[in-house]
Write a structure and sequence with these properties.
The structure is a homodimer. Chain A is mainly α. Chain A has helices at about 25-45, 50-55, 60-70, 70-80, 95-110, 115-125, 130-145, 145-155, 165-180, 190-205. Chain A folds into 2 domains: about 5-85, Arc Repressor Mutant, subunit A (Orthogonal Bundle); about 85-205, Tetracycline Repressor, domain 2. Chain A is elongated and about 60 Å long. Chain A starts with about 20 loop residues before the first helix and ends in an 8-residue tail after the last helix. Mean pLDDT of chain A is about 85; it is low at about 5-20. The interface of A and B includes residues 131, 182, 195 and 197 of A.
């Protein structure tokens, strides 16, 4: 199970993607992605240059420039590579349980050491391409979480009307992102469950019902 | 009424503070704060230097260095100055109404042009002092919002048990921050009210009750 935070969605050795040339190309990509993450954590965005990534990865700089062009291209590809993984949301048997487990993953991603997720979020404030890639990443993750809401509806945990799954999922996870990524407050071990319970209660009361 | 987003909390001409020397010192501070905001919006964090701020403000650079030391000191003082204003949360007569009005202010701050609030948030990922000042700023704002929850309790909108006002306020505002500051999705005019209704429903159902 992988979190909707960017971090652990980018394993050091990603599984072989399906529709992309494997072999050397895939190995080069994995080496370069690993170097981007290491460089970002070690030196921050200011130390993230194509040359530094090339040196750290052992891949020839001409290759890196040709394939990724610049820092924005590197960050976007690292984030986009997360879409290749097999992540699926937790299935605990209840809406509150699923949302709690999801929030635990988000919190773990945002507080992990080295802080790759936070470094990627920070980079998204500097590079429009990274910001766009991060948006795509979160879109993909929230889309994959739709079954959490569908299962809750099937179990009768939601009112009869259709539920706006995205609004429910954002409401459930936003307090965790807000506390850790923006307020930069210390981790609160109770927050994943509290935020999940809040969203589940609101959902049960019809807060995310789609009109019509 | 001023938003809990940093932006409009820092007017170009702040009212005279109570316990700080007025006159020249206050004028210099206002000039320098204005220059920090303008420079941040015009050139981003990378263009924010003590020398650039001094040049833009017309204040002698020796004065700026002596009083603010570095970029972190400048950003922290700009954010801390927001604590001097007379901001109070909206009072609309209902919890959902107050939270909606609060969220409208947050959304307005995060989407205003020039994007001062977003520039300050971006800077907080680069400067530990700015991050700490932003945390203090939000702490102050959430603290000032406690009457929203107290009034709701007095009106009987909350269950009998004591309510964790900070948790309720974070839950109400977090989706707006999440969408605009992290997901960087287009503004959704319905979100302030939706997020407010969600939090109010959850609060009424006891989601933020303090045990004991």
């Amino acid at each position: 199970m992988e979190p909707p935070a960017p971090s652990t969605d980018m394993p050091q050795d990603p599984p072989a993607p399906r529709r992309r040339p494997g072999g050397r190309t895939a190995r080069v990509r994995a080496l370069v992605h690993g170097a981007v993450r290491e460089q970002l954590v070690a030196e921050g965005y200011d130390g993230l240059t194509v040359d530094a990534v090339a040196a750290r990865s052992g891949v020839h700089r001409t290759t890196v420039y040709r394939r990724w062009r610049d820092v924005g291209g590197l960050l976007a590809d690292v984030l986009d590579s997360a879409a290749d993984d097999g992540w699926a949301p937790p299935d605990t048997g209840s809406l509150e349980g699923d949302l709690t487990a999801l929030n635990e993953e988000v919190a773990a991603g945002l507080t992990e050491d080295p802080p790759i997720a936070m470094a990627l979020i920070a980079a998204s404030f500097r590079s429009p391409e990274a910001a766009e890639a991060l948006r795509r990443f979160w879109d993909d993750r929230y889309r994959r979480c739709a079954p959490v809401v569908e299962r809750a509806a099937a179990r009768g945990e939601l009112p009869g009307a259709a539920t706006d799954d995205r609004a429910l999922l954002v409401a459930a996870t936003a307090p965790v992102y807000h506390r850790l990524a923006l307020l930069r407050a210390p981790a609160d071990p109770a927050l994943p469950a509290t935020a999940a319970r809040t969203a589940a209660l609101a959902a049960g009361a019809g807060a995310f019902a789609v009109p019509g």
